[in-house]
Amino acid sequence: MLTRARHIGRHRGKTPAQLKKELDQAGCTLIGLATEIDGLRAERDRLEAQLDAAGIELSGVRDDLSAARKQIRHLDAVVLLRDRKIDDLNRKIDVGVKAEHVISKTQELDGEEIRRHLHASPQAAVTNPGTVRQTSWGRDGEGVA
């Protein structure tokens, strides 16, 4: 009988004080979990707001990138046109310098001959500035006023 009493004593239900204590602990755990859930919800809301802001910023950056790419294409076209103009002007300068050199070599004039001609015929040197006449040395020249 004593063994049975011990056995029943060991396996009997919890006392009302123990049950109250466990109920209080369960209530505290429930309140703690609810508080943690509220904190996690607030964190989720904050992260969603950051994600939305990042999406808006990304959209703006994409627009800026698109505009920058258009501007770069435009500037590339301007630089290409400028380079073509520079090459064309360099070619024209080269042609002009070569032509001038060829003309000066093929039509060299003796300075002394020009002086003699001008001293011999003073009227030949003074003409209407807008007219062109044949000079005695075989070239077209403008009159000197």
Automatic annotation (TrEMBL):
Coiled coil: 30-64
Highest rank taxon of the organism: Bacteria
Compositionally biased residues, Polar residues: 124-137
Disordered as annotated region, ranges: 121-145
Alphabetical keyword list: Coiled coil
Protein name: Uncharacterized protein
